[in-house]
Design brief:
about 230 residues, alpha/beta, 9 helices, 6 strands
Length: about 230
């Protein structure tokens, strides 16, 4: 029996770049999404927790809510007690936040990582308080997600743990906001911010080299043997 697993629920970087324009240049936009995805994977692997990636090729359902609920249910069906769900578009997310969420779930709490736009960047939930039908009806991908989850907490009558607010990124203005609120960040995210706000010019080839330098140590994704 697995105590806690991480579920990365997101489109692939290639697909994300089609819907989220972080930069007007298509090639750089895709590179930025690759960097965000790789950084997320690095944070997940640093936790040592088992994890799953459910992208557009593995998602099942007719709408976001149904696909999201089905993905969570699929992890619970693998004899997992708790699931921490994240996307791949929050550059501030670190292994520390993930491990903190894992600790809080073990205390029988619903864990929410709120973003600064009324949504969430992380959801930690146990199998015993997860209700698939209710989850499908939550207004996902809107600014009302956070409040809807608070209502859900009231219904299931479990303690709530709120993590620190972070920013996820869907467009160029989100990166402008990052520049204003970040007091410390790793060099890659700082560099990305400077590039897409136009304050630092850099060729695509150099940008690719920087990404490779930062992420070349990330292992190729594979499902944990216990879940195969």
């Amino acid at each position: 029996m697995i105590k806690t697993a991480i579920l990365i629920f997101s489109r692939s970087a290639k697909e994300e770049s089609r819907f989220k324009k972080l930069h007007p240049n298509r090639k750089i936009n895709r590179q930025l999404h690759v960097a965000l995805s790789n950084k997320t994977m690095q944070a997940v692997q640093e936790t040592g927790l088992p994890f799953f990636l459910v992208d557009e090729y593995l998602q099942e359902g007719n709408g976001f809510g149904e696909k999201f609920a089905n993905a969570i249910s699929s992890v619970f069906q693998k004899d997992c007690h708790n699931v921490i769900v994240i996307g791949n578009d929050c550059p501030e997310l670190s292994s520390k936040f993930l491990l903190d969420a894992a600790d809080k779930i073990n205390e029988n709490k619903l864990v929410i990582g709120p973003d600064r736009n009324g949504g969430i960047y992380l959801l930690g939930i146990s199998a015993k308080i997860f209700d698939s039908k209710t989850f499908i009806e939550i207004p996902w991908q809107t600014g009302g997600v956070y409040n809807a989850l608070l209502d859900y907490r009231d219904c299931v009558c479990f303690d709530l743990c709120l993590l620190e607010k972070l920013s996820d990124f869907n467009n160029l203005s989100d990166f402008h906001f990052l520049k204003k609120i970040l007091h410390s960040a790793n060099s890659l995210i700082t560099l990305i911010t400077l590039i897409i706000t136009g304050e630092k010019k850099i060729s695509s080839s150099i940008l690719i080299s920087i990404y490779w330098f930062h992420f070349s140590n990330i292992k190729r994704f594979r499902a944990p043997p216990a879940f195969q």
